Amino acid sequence: MGVIDLDRLTVRLGGRTVLDSLTGELCGNAIGLLGPNGAGKSTLINTLLGFHSPSDGTARVFGMDARHERARIRQSIGYMPENDSFIGNMTGVRFVRYMAELAGLPSGEALERAHEALFYVGLGEVRYRLVSTYSLGMKQLVKLAQALAHGPRLLILDEPTNGLDPMARQRMIQTIKEIRKEGSIRLLISSHLLRDIDETCDEVLILKAGRIAALCNIEEERRSHHNFIELEAIGPLEQFSTSIRGRGCECACFPGGRVKLVMPDTIEARDLYLIAGEQGVQIRRMHQRRDSLEDIFLRAMESDRGR
Amino acid sequence: MSVYQRNYKAYTGRLTPQWTRVAVLVRYGLREAWASKITIGLMIFSMLPFFISLVQIYLVNNPVARALIVRGNSRILDINSAFFLRILETQCWLALVLLAWIAPRLISYDLSDNALPILLSHPISRLSYLGGKFLAVFAVLSLVTWVPCLALFLYQSYSSAQPWALANMPIAVGIVVGALVWIALLAFLGLALSSWVKWRVVATGTIFAAVFVPAGVGGMVSAVLGTRWGLLLNLPVMMTELWQRLLGAPAVMRANNELPGSAITFMLAAVCALCVAILNARIRAREVVRG
Question: Is the ipTM of this complex over 0.90?
Answer without folding.
Answer: no
